[in-house]
């Protein structure tokens, strides 16, 4: 960030990204610029929210009251992938590969449940995924004593043990997700772009970027052509008195049937 009052140009700033749930009727992605990574930012943004909060295991989210935290099995799997030995002929015979296989089983089952309603999904998870999870935790206990400390494999096992509750919480509600991939996929275009532009010129510029990315990524997850949608709202919204009548915005939201027809 450049030209931010009271901060050096080399100071890191952050783009926070919030999302509706994977199975929400109206998919939303919202980017928010903040100068830091304190848990006070999501605490403020999510004030009044109660429910399940999907995220990585960053402890700052513990400041958000009234939520049940759900951690990401894709992160857990990544720990095992990083622990695969590079100099062994048969990595499939390693402890790390066994951990990956447990994760793969969960994701394989999950793919079969995507078209179910929330109650059906919860029932099927308890029937088919819970036994895999029980076997996984028993396996973790059986191997933890044979792993070298300060190794990547030790990190994978430690991550699982430290976050067991959060990794299991998605079973409580069929609307929960098994991973945080949804939001990671939405933030990827920003991450790729940042490698090119490197920084924002000012906090106002970063906030403007956040607004544009929010509009574009929300349009995309609602099946719209982002260019058509941006052209539509830039052409139509200037004449709408939504400041006095915010309900008028309903006609311009990405899931509105008419918008769906115009901006596919």
TrEMBL record:
Residues 5-207 form the Transposase IS66 central domain. This is Mobile element protein. It comes from Sporomusa ovata. It comes from the Bacteria. InterPro entries: IS66_C (IPR039552), Transposase-related (IPR052344), Transposase_IS66_central (IPR004291). Pfam families: DDE_Tnp_IS66, DDE_Tnp_IS66_C. NCBIfam families: transpos_IS66 (NF033517). Residues 214-255 form the Transposase IS66 C-terminal domain.
């Amino acid at each position: 960030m450049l030209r931010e009052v009271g901060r050096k140009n080399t100071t890191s700033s952050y783009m926070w990204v919030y999302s509706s749930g994977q199975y929400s009727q109206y998919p939303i992605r919202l980017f928010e610029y903040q100068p830091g990574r304190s848990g006070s930012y999501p605490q403020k943004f999510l004030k009044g929210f109660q429910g399940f909060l999907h995220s990585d295991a960053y402890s700052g989210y513990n400041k958000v009251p009234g939520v049940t935290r759900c951690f990401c099995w894709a992160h857990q799997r990544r720990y095992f992938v990083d622990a695969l030995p590079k100099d062994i002929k048969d990595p499939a015979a390693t402890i790390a590969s066994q951990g990956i296989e447990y994760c793969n089983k969960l994701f394989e089952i999950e793919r079969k449940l995507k078209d179910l309603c929330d109650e059906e999904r919860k029932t099927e998870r308890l029937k088919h995924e819970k036994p895999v999870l029980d076997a996984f935790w028993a396996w973790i206990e059986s191997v933890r004593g044979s792993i070298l400390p300060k190794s990547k494999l030790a990190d994978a096992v430690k991550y699982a043990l430290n976050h067991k509750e959060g990794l299991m919480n998605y079973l409580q509600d069929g609307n929960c997700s098994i991973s945080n991939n949804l939001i990671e996929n939405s933030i990827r275009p920003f991450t790729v772009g940042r490698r090119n532009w490197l920084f924002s010129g000012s906090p106002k510029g970063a906030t403007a970027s956040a607004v544009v990315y929010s509009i574009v990524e929300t349009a995309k997850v609602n099946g719209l052509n982002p260019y058509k949608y941006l052209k539509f709202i830039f052409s139509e919204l200037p004449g709408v008195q939504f400041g006095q009548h915010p309900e008028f915005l309903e006609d311009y939201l990405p899931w509105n049937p008419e918008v769906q027809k115009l901006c596919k």
